[in-house]
Design a protein that fits this description.
Length: about 375
């Protein structure tokens, strides 16, 4: 009773301890989970450029990453707004580190599985020098987008690295000034970042290796900040009462937005990126704003598995790519299927099937590693409490 009274008193004073803060109950959105899976497949298809020259899929498929950045920004804002603790300068450093640690925990074991297997494949295909270079450590510790020289073992890790680096300084600012950041700073930084990339490079996906800050960080800044704007818009949409017909109309608008965004991926000059951002934002706003019929009617459990599989597919398909490249070099007859000729569809099917199989294999292994790690962390915490 005394403890409860103390907690209530602290809440009235605007202060809430970390231990007494209730975890927000954020329900899953099965519609977003489904599109996560679609996005991962698009990225896998885009990376088939390693085999086929000219590529079978345009560079626009790489812009699916912008959809993931927007989602990261949305959930970033959701976490900050649902946190009712008073801001404290004395503890904001620890709070920021804990926030990032929670983000890393969500993908850590799929990342470790993907990196270790890709490293083994790298050793088999590229040899000792690339596999055992100390430059690989920067990639392992998610520092690949800091500008430090590295060897690409696991290409997809750049997205995770850029996301974490951008969120690290934004989190304290966002926690301190939620309304100012979401209403003014985020939209200015988001739109300004897109414009900066076009002015400096002319092409949104132009090669910018060696630049600092890395173009990937600017892409992450644009997507995360505009994702914050999406969160604010979706929260406003939740307050509107539009009836069943209005919801049906918005569902159609959201679906057409995604179809149009996917269609624009075929543009090789990437001039439609701002429009794609807008279409992605419209879809996410409608889906998370509670007005999409699909978001309410799609089954939760299968879509949750689809989201987990999409993460596994994204973080493990590099291993498959490296193995197939090695086999194609060693066996010329096999390599003929990985050229832009009549047999290209066979090579593409082998690549997709192998990537899907390996991602499914990674799921139980990563889950097992996560459970073991969780038990270890629990024991360490228990020992500290006893002391």
């Amino acid at each position: 009773m005394l403890r409860a009274a103390s907690c209530k008193k602290r809440e009235k004073n605007g202060v809430k301890d970390l231990k007494t803060t209730e975890k927000p109950n954020i329900g899953r959105n099965p519609e977003l989970d489904l599109w996560r899976l679609f996005g991962s497949i698009c990225i896998v298809l885009y990376h088939s450029k390693s085999f086929f020259d000219p590529p079978l899929f345009s560079s626009g498929y790489a812009l699916t990453v912008e959809f993931f950045f927007l989602l990261s920004g949305y959930f970033f804002a959701s976490t900050v707004y649902r946190d009712r603790r008073a801001f404290r300068w004395e503890t904001i450093g620890k709070e920021t580190v804990r926030f990032l640690a929670h983000k890393i925990w969500g993908f850590l074991f799929y990342f470790v599985f993907g990196f270790v297997t890709a490293w083994i494949a790298c050793y088999c295909v590229r040899g000792w020098n690339d596999a055992f270079s100390p430059l690989n450590l920067y990639e392992l510790f998610l520092l690949s987008e800091t500008g430090i020289p590295r060897i690409n073992v696991m290409n997809p890790d750049w997205y995770l690295s850029a996301m974490l680096i951008v969120m690290f300084p934004l989190y304290p600012l966002f926690r301190r000034r939620k309304d100012l950041f979401s209403a003014v700073i985020a939209p200015v930084l988001g739109v300004g970042s897109i414009g900066y990339i076009y002015v400096k490079y002319g092409n949104y996906l132009a090669d910018a290796s060696g630049d600092f800050p890395a173009k990937s960080l600017i892409r992450a800044l644009a997507g995360i900040c505009l994702g914050v704007v999406v969160y604010r818009a979706s929260e406003y949409l939740k307050t509107l009462k539009i009836g069943s017909r209005g919801e049906a109309a918005l569902t159609v608008v959201g679906a057409l937005s995604m179809v149009a965004a996917v269609r624009l991926m075929g543009y090789r000059d990437n001039t439609a990126v701002p429009l794609q951002f807008l279409l992605f934002m419209i879809f996410i706003t409608i889906s998370t704003g509670g007005k999409s019929l699909f978001a309410r009617r799609l089954p939760q459990k299968p879509m949750k598995l689809a989201a987990e599989f999409s993460l596994s597919l994204y973080l493990t398909h590099t291993t498959v790519r490296l193995v197939l490249l090695g086999l194609a070099e060693k066996f010329p007859s096999f390599g003929e299927m990985f050229s832009s000729g009549e047999n290209a569809w066979k090579g593409l099917l082998i690549y997709l099937a192998a990537s899907i199989f390996f991602a499914l294999l990674a799921m139980p292994v990563s889950r097992g590693l996560k459970k073991l790690a969780a038990k270890g962390v629990g024991r360490i915490r228990g020992m500290r409490e006893e002391q």
